[in-house]
Amino acid sequence: MGLLDKLSSLFRLKKREVKVLVVGLNNSGKSTVLNHLKSDDDKITVEPTVGLNVEKFKHNNVGFTALDMSGQVRYREVWEHYYSDCEGIIFVIDSSDRLRLAVVQEELELLLQHPDTVGKRLPILFFANKMDARDALSSVKIASALNLHRIINKPWHICASNAVKGEGLDEGIEWLTQQICENIRKE
Amino acid sequence: MAFKRDKKEEEDGGGNIFLNLEKTSVLQEARTFNETPVNPRKCTIILSKILYLINQGEQLGTTEATETFFAMTKLFQSRDVILRRMVYLGIKELSSLAEDVIIVTSSLTKDMTGKEDLYRAAAIRALCSITDGSMLQAIERYMKQAIVDRNAAVSSAALVSSLHMTRIAGDVVKRWVNEAQEALISDNVMVQYHALGVLYHIRKSDRLAVTKLVTKLTRSPLKSPFAVCLLIRIVCKLLEEEGDVALSESPLFDFVEKCLRHKSETVIYEAAHAVVNLRRTTPRELAPAVSVLQLFCSSPKPALRFAAVRTLNKVAMSHPAAVTACNLDLENLISDSNRSIATLAITTLLKTGAESSVDRLMKQISTFVSEISDEFKVVVVQAIRALCLKFPRKHGVLMNFLSAMLRDEGGLEYKASIADTIISIIEENPDAKETGLAHLCEFIEDCEHTSLAVRILHLLGKEGPRTKQPSRYIRFIYNRVILESAVVRCAAVAAMAQFGASCPDLLPNILVLLARCQMDCDDETRDRATFYYHILSGDQPQFIYHYIVDHLQVSIPSLERALTQYVANPTPEQFDISTVPVSAPEPTNVPEKGHGTVDIANPVAVQPETPAKAAESYAVKLASIPELAPLPGSLFRSSDPVQLTESETEYVVKCIKHCFSDHLILQFNILNTLSDTLLESIGVTLEEPEGYEILKEVACPKLSCGETGSVYVLLKFPEDLSLSVSTFGATLKFVVKDCDPTTGEPDTDEGYHDTYMLEDLDVLLSDQVVRVMKGNWGAAWEQAEGESFFELEDTYVLTSVTSLEQAIQNIVVFLGMQPAERTDRLPQGKSAHTLLLAGMFRGGHDVLVRAKLALAEGVTMQITVRAPSQEIAELITSALG
């Protein structure tokens, strides 16, 4: 890759704006994840989201517009309205909530089979959140419990995180940025 | 035409982009919202288009609306201020149409509490439009904060939104009282005004709390003139409820009077307006208010002049003397460049002025009557109508003026009001009859309003035959047969038949004309002509009377229902029109002198439900009660509700008497006003008087606080008619259970029996008689003699009444019959009068009454009753005894 190419790709990246969808069950930590990613002067106290919230943050010169969806049961059906025009999905899982892993799997299944996502190479980033909790499952165990290995037509990545302290978030977002940029370059 | 429009568009500069918008294409465009990054300019325009369409009355389906709504939510990612504010508007418009609107709650709460002031107020309004009662709890904290926010726009928005929220969650909003109190001491005029509005709304059901609020605020002056105006209105409401204390003694009225000297013109006007409109205002209180208005009359601001003269115009009806002082100022306003002000000034002068100034004023109006809008022309017409009642001798000048106005251009409403006025003048003033009819005849020669032409033809048919020279009207009527549309031709044929029936010497001519009408190309006209021709040529006076002179008296909605029923369930029997209830004529509300005009603020005063409609709705309601089915025949008459308790007792009971041909249903409406009791199995025990027989009782199962329930009792009228006028003792009986006032749940399952004495219930003669309008009472009277009616005559001395008017009123109320030929109105200065009444007794018996009254010591009355049976006649004569 020549210097010129690098420069131009950097240049293009600079202007790049991407949209990602943040989903997951209620109380999994979606808003907290985003709250940590935002610039410092935008921080709010997190409380249950009603409907959705739009948040913006930056990573490596890429501007992210994150649609923070509510995870409450009555709003989950709203998610699908936004599948069609996003470039990546962040799926936040409460790794200490063993009981509801089955629900997570169900919701994931619905997401993967939705007509707006099924044919697309949407990168999906899983955050196995609340890794600091005493009875938290490891990311590997969650991946196998959710049977993530069967997803073959979409790039995916799972990383353990602690959204309150911000541990593990940057690693995941780094991966997502890369994937999205690759997708864009391919177009 | 197309060329013209093109040219106009060029002048407008590019034309209107919102012209010729199509819903589907605009919604298609709305997909742009999904694009990343958002293009704020483009999206703003599309949003404007959507809002424009909705405001033009375009209907969006639920799916369409929801789709658009979700697309719109994606615009939250843009930080463009203008676009965001458009999104708020979009949310508000779509909130009632789309589903799942609640999903923007978090986005909106974020904007509402954020730093961008431009977002906050609008976000609050949008948020409140999407919130329902259950979600309100979640945003309550933010709302409370917003109400006391330092930013006036935010605070106002929160207050007004809370006012709207009271409709869906009044209880939650009630909890915001402290915040609203705090907002009330704000420096901002709007915030203070809105805060007062919210506070009043929260407390308005609690009289004591309102009084407290008002007393506090009247002592410490409010800064905001708007808040003061609102306070004046609240004070007036309290004053009206206060009862019969003299205004000058009330401290509240002192406040209103003080506001007349406020520094803001708005407040001064509001106070003057309030004083003028209070029901108990006497000339003493009126004087300062009128002098304030008088000052406004010479203000350089047109709005103030208009407000003042409009209010004076209204006062002139109730207190003409007080306005006379302003006559000079009003004279100056006649030449005002604003025609609305000038019109109101003149009409006010017409109301207050002396007879001598009428001619001059009329001349002045005629100079500019063509320049004012129809709406104000109607005001002028109303004023003339009042004038005619006041100065009957001036009818010549006024009538000429009206006929000139009739010939001018104008809409239906305007023409109808002129025709109404002429008709009412004819009715009031026999001297004006001939000229009035002549003007109307001339008018229908060239009248483009079918409905008016039909009305006038009907009037000619009714009044024409009784004039000195009936033949002169026939030409006008027959011209209509030649020239007009089918509907008018029908009316003309019917009018001619009236002449034929009432004027024997014209009959041969009428028959020739009717014979020609049988050639008409319209079915209905031909049918009518044939029908009338055969009746009139048949030489059967009773047919002529029954089918032409005497018109159909059944209530139209009931007839319609009966016919639909008959068609739906065909039976071999013929349809019997006598089973259809007779409709009472609408009470003739010919206005009193001086109150003759409808005020222009609400020209269409709320009309009470017509008796026919009310009876019909009762009939439907009774038929829907399974326990009472089958009803004993068709409903004959329902009385007005009679109060059987004081209005402020534990249980408020009203009774409606439904009369059938042989039966009576008493409907007791019971309202439970005790908040801590639950009533069960409520019934009414009647002490039945002699002759009556109770057939059925329908109890009311349950009544919690604030609810109204009904108990029905079905009775049979006594065979002996003289016993039917009687008095029932009534007692309410029920089971009481104590309950929690907030939830309404009973504390225990066991209740105790209790009774409650009601006032005695009278079944009167007027409950069994329906008013019937006889167009030609004399003919009916003659007819009754021929048809073997019983006649009964008696003489009474009415000692309790002192004037003829009073006697007439009492007789009409006692008998419940309709005065015919306007004999209920008394020519002035007479000491003897004949009252003619017509009615129908239950079972469909026509009853005619003639009462000759003479004023002596008390009033002497000779009453003659003609009725189909002796019993009915006796009942009626005895009712007055």
Automatic annotation (TrEMBL), chain A:
Domain of life: Eukaryota
Amino-acid positions noted as binding Mg(2+) in the UniProt annotation, renumbered to this chain: 31, 49
Gene Ontology CC: axoneme; ciliary membrane
MF GO annotations: GTP binding; GTPase activity; metal ion binding
KW Transmembrane helix (keyword) present: no
Main location as per UniProt: membrane
Gene Ontology biological-process entries: cell projection organization; establishment of localization in cell; vesicle-mediated transport
Binding residue positions for GTP: 24-31, 71, 129-132
Membrane topology: Peripheral membrane protein
Keywords: Cell membrane, Cell projection, Cilium biogenesis/degradation, Cytoplasm, Cytoskeleton, GTP-binding, Lipoprotein, Magnesium, Membrane, Metal-binding, Myristate, Nucleotide-binding
Gene3D superfamilies: P-loop containing nucleotide triphosphate hydrolases (3.40.50.300)
NCBIfam families: small_GTP
Protein name in UniProt: ADP-ribosylation factor-like protein 6
Organism of provenance: Bemisia tabaci (Sweetpotato whitefly)
Native organism taxonomy: Eukaryota, Metazoa, Ecdysozoa, Arthropoda, Hexapoda
UniProtKB/TrEMBL annotation, chain B:
Biological role: The coatomer is a cytosolic protein complex that binds to dilysine motifs and reversibly associates with Golgi non-clathrin-coated vesicles, which further mediate biosynthetic protein transport from the ER, via the Golgi up to the trans Golgi network. Coatomer complex is required for budding from Golgi membranes, and is essential for the retrograde Golgi-to-ER transport of dilysine-tagged proteins.
Domain of life: Eukaryota
Annotated ranges, domain Clathrin/coatomer adaptor adaptin-like N-terminal: 23-538
Any Pfam family hit: Coatomer_g_Cpla
Main location: cytoplasm
Biological processes per GO annotation: endoplasmic reticulum to Golgi vesicle-mediated transport; intra-Golgi vesicle-mediated transport; intracellular protein transport; organelle transport along microtubule; protein secretion
Quaternary data: Oligomeric complex that consists of at least the alpha, beta, beta', gamma, delta, epsilon and zeta subunits.
Entry keyword set: Cytoplasm, Cytoplasmic vesicle, ER-Golgi transport, Golgi apparatus, Membrane, Protein transport, Repeat, Transport
GO cellular component: COPI vesicle coat; endoplasmic reticulum; endoplasmic reticulum-Golgi intermediate compartment; Golgi membrane
Domain Coatomer gamma subunit appendage Ig-like subdomain, chain residue ranges per copy: 617-763
Location within or outside the cell: Cytoplasm; Golgi apparatus membrane; Cytoplasmic vesicle, COPI-coated vesicle membrane
The name this protein goes by in its record: Coatomer subunit gamma
Residue ranges constituting the Coatomer subunit gamma C-terminal domain according to the UniProt record: 766-879
